[in-house]
Automatic annotation (TrEMBL):
Keywords: Cell membrane, Membrane, Protein transport, Translocation, Transmembrane, Transmembrane helix, Transport. The keyword Cell membrane applies. It is a multi-pass membrane protein. The Tat system comprises two distinct complexes: a TatABC complex, containing multiple copies of TatA, TatB and TatC subunits, and a separate TatA complex, containing only TatA subunits. Substrates initially bind to the TatABC complex, which probably triggers association of the separate TatA complex to form the active translocon. GO terms for molecular function: proton motive force dependent protein transmembrane transporter activity. Belongs to the TatC family. The gene is tatC. This is Sec-independent protein translocase protein TatC. It comes from Paenarthrobacter aurescens (strain TC1).
Length: 278
């Protein structure tokens, strides 16, 4: 939503639906360019990155004495995996670009003070996304170890490379997006779409969904593993809800003040010079 030259005449930056769609297309195009450039870097560093991704499988052999190996079961499997891993790294490297484009599409529709607050959350969104990815990276070895513990005694783990890397990439991306959701909630609140009271009323389902996600995304040997993952996510969610409630109160006070000013000036006659200008 690009600000037009007539910003003073259009302080709320209202746009027609077609203009919104054009602006969305431009934002998506810029985000795609950032991901493509990041993907190029991903192709360059693919080999060391792949070594790091498959390290949990190697650790099963070296540290626990299991028979575990990755199986490339197709002629083009290696190339397909190279593309998937490179695109995933491109998404991470381009996160400042596409997160900014997402917020830039929302921000111009906000008031000046709300816009400054929203931009501050843009700065928080990137490290939160990357922090979620890093947290998933720390959980990955334990998740692989626990899941392969179900292999019967005497059995071997010939794991499909395509299935394994798809699991790893989804895990990393899911955690990154999960840490980004609280920032999106604040943005929706600033845009007037979501109210803080609505989020407070749904706190039970929020806790349930976060714990369910933590249990599925990082299965540990005990309940503490789930707690270590769910705790920071819940903290971020409730911090976002607190910001939404404070913003709603500030918005209500501003609306009351405007109503009082309007009522105070309603009985004042309009000067003749102003009528002539109209």
């Amino acid at each position: 939503m690009v600000e037009t030259k007539g910003r003073k005449a259009n302080p709320e930056a209202r746009m027609a639906l077609l203009d919104h769609l054009k602006e969305l297309r431009n934002r998506l195009f810029k985000a795609a360019i950032g991901v493509i450039l990041g993907t190029v870097v991903g192709f360059i560093v693919y080999q060391p990155l792949l070594e790091a991704l498959i390290k949990p499988i190697k650790d099963l052999n070296e540290k626990e004495g299991r028979a575990a190996t990755l199986n490339f079961d197709g002629v083009a499997s290696s190339f397909d995996l190279m593309v998937q891993v490179s695109v995933f790294l491109g998404v991470i490297l381009a996160s400042p670009v596409w997160i900014y484009q997402l917020w830039a599409f929302i921000v111009p529709g906000l008031h000046k003070k709300e816009r400054r607050l929203a931009l501050s959350f843009v700065a928080a969104a990137v490290p939160l996304f990357i922090g979620g990815v890093l947290l998933a990276w720390l959980v990955l070895p334990n998740a692989v170890r626990v899941l392969t513990d179900f292999t019967p005694v005497g059995g071997s783990n010939f794991i499909s490379a395509e299935i394994y890397l798809a699991f790893v990439l989804r895990l990393l991306l899911a955690f990154g997006i999960a840490f980004l959701v609280p920032v999106v909630l604040v943005g929706l609140n600033l845009a007037g779409i979501v109210k803080g009271k609505q989020l407070i009323k749904s706190w039970r389902i929020t806790i349930f969904l976060v714990c369910l996600f933590a249990a599925m995304a990082a299965p540990g040997a005990d309940a503490m593993s789930m707690f270590y993952l769910a705790a920071p996510m819940l903290l971020l969610f409730f911090a976002a809800i607190g910001v939404c409630v404070l913003n709603d109160r500030r918005r209500e006070r501003r609306a009351i003040k405007r109503a009082a000013e309007t009522e105070a000036t309603a009985d004042i006659a309009t000067p003749a010079t102003d009528l002539e200008n109209l």
